[in-house]
Amino acid sequence: MESIMRLPSLKGCLALFRGENGRSRQFTENVPIVEVDAELAELIPQYLSSRWADLAFARQLFKSGDYFLLSRTARRIRDGAISHGFAGLGDIAKALEAAADQSDAKAVRAQLEAYDAFLRSVRIDYV
């Protein structure tokens, strides 16, 4: 699992999503980079906002002990992430699904933390 050394500010993330100085911003080497077709640039902020909502929902499911619904939610996140080109998030969601299927609280917690770190640090490169 990648370690995060420095997280970009919210202002920096918003600037990236808008395409403002995206190529010149400094990042650590452990930041996940996702290449997205420039024609889809307007969709990415809503996509990421929805993933934050999914994370909040997954945390609620974990807190309530609903591993079955957590597993189904992780599968949906995984499928959507892969189809949108967010393979790293898809990998995290796949591991979250497996942990939920095993009712492994420690592994679920770790994957939820990885999910959070991914969303906080992902860099979008529009191509």
Helical content (DSSP H or I, runs of 4+): 55-70%
Strand content: 5-15%
Individual helix count: 5
Give the structural class: mainly alpha
Task: Describe the secondary structure blueprint for this structure.
Elements: H1 10-18, E1 33-36, H2 44-64, H3 67-83, H4 87-101, H5 105-121, E2 123-126
Parallel strand pairs: 1-2
Helix pairs in contact: 2-3, 2-5, 3-4, 4-5
Describe the structure.
By secondary structure, this protein is mostly helical. The protein has helices spanning 10-18, 44-64, 67-83, 87-101, 105-121, and strands at residues 33-36, 123-126. A two-stranded parallel ribbon has the order 1-2. Helix 2 (44-64) runs antiparallel to helix 5 (105-121) and helix 3 packs antiparallel against helix 4. It starts with 9 loop residues before the first helix and ends with a strand. The model is unreliable at 1-10 and 16-28 (pLDDT under 50).
Characteristics of this structure?
6% strand; mainly alpha; 127 residues; disordered N terminus; 2 strands; 5 helices; two-stranded parallel sheet
Brief digest:
The chain has 127 residues and is mostly helical.
